[in-house]
């Protein structure tokens, strides 16, 4: 699981929104099973309504 593209996300304390910390998968590629992802889900950052992120998933 890799973050392929994203807007410039500002965190609290840096003139940003209510995010205090970005989810770990946004800064470091993660390897998880499909079963785990189905059960746990994916924590998304708080974005402006007109923003989007592109997430890449690769079968290993």
From TrEMBL:
It comes from Klebsiella pneumoniae subsp. pneumoniae. GO terms for molecular function: alpha-galactosidase activity. Its EC number is 3.2.1.22. Keywords: Glycosidase, Hydrolase. This is Alpha-galactosidase.
